[in-house]
Amino acid sequence: MERIKEIEDAYIAIKDGKILAAGKSPAAISAKEKIDAKGMIAIPGSVDCHTHLILYGS
């Protein structure tokens, strides 16, 4: 299995809930909101499928 490469000092640009771009951070990014995610992992496209079917009623 091929090891997934990390991208340090990266960015993910999101607009209207959709990913516009991602990659190595340019020197300056203009954004409404910035989130410092240092030490965290971003997995675009990953969905949390954990659910309890009983919560959906009958």
UniProtKB/TrEMBL annotation:
Q: Name one GO molecular function term.
A: imidazolonepropionase activity
Question: InterPro entries attached here?
Answer: Metal-dep_hydrolase_composite (IPR011059)
- Claim: Hydrolase is one of the keywords in the record: yes
Top enzyme category: hydrolase
What EC number is given for this enzyme? 3.5.2.7
Q: Which UniProt keywords apply?
A: Hydrolase
Q: Can you say what this protein is called?
A: Imidazolonepropionase HutI
* Organism name: Thermoanaerobacter kivui (Acetogenium kivui)
Tell me the organism's taxonomic lineage: Bacteria, Bacillati, Bacillota, Clostridia, Thermoanaerobacterales
